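User: Mind token order:
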Amino acid sequence: MTINQGPEPEQTARKTSNLRPFIFLGLLVAIIILLKVFNVQQYLEKERLRQTIAAYGVWGPLIYLIIWTLAPPLFLPGLPITVAGGVLFGPFWGVVYTIFGATGGATLAFLVARYLARDWVEAKIANTRLETLDDRVARQGWKIVAFTRLIPIFPFFILNYAFGITRISLRAYVVTTFFGMMPATVAYVYFSSNILDLLQGRVSKEFLLGAALVALVSLIPWIYKKFKARKGESLDPSDI
């Protein structure tokens, strides 16, 4: 009897990537409605909120970095944490803390796979296209990491583990992950750093710019897919 394995992880991730802007928008709308219902928007003026967080000194950023570092190894969703970073720390420090936290989490998962859980990861990616990731890394090196960060066709969290059992060096993985995640981090943090303006009845130019950045980043996979289609190629990291 044949057991249906379901869609491959990259197919699921591709669908999730396409839906990500709508998930983000839905989450935003839900939060705004809840805040309006409970009438707490008066306490969420962004400068007042950030001053409150700043009053805790180093503990605010430290706790945020710890949460982000633990999220990828524990398969926790990163989008709400990213939104919180923009809201609590603003566009500059929000990007700084988010990119270092997300890279730290991706690195922790990488190290767990490399030194502690190789058998578990191999079983997890068995019979998927991630099973050949090591061969692709051997041929293309850091380019595969950059590709999968910019074009999210594989699940982010399992991808961190999967790279841990490849032959890529830790340094190349960390550096490429850091810069590969930067465009999406800047877009989502900048946008979320201005969403509290909506609670005050304002649609600021910063909010509109953030929305445009999120839209632009969300179009990267679609643009790449169209580019490959014109060349008669498929969306496959092995053809970088």
About this structure: Residues 1-10 have pLDDT under 50 and may be disordered.
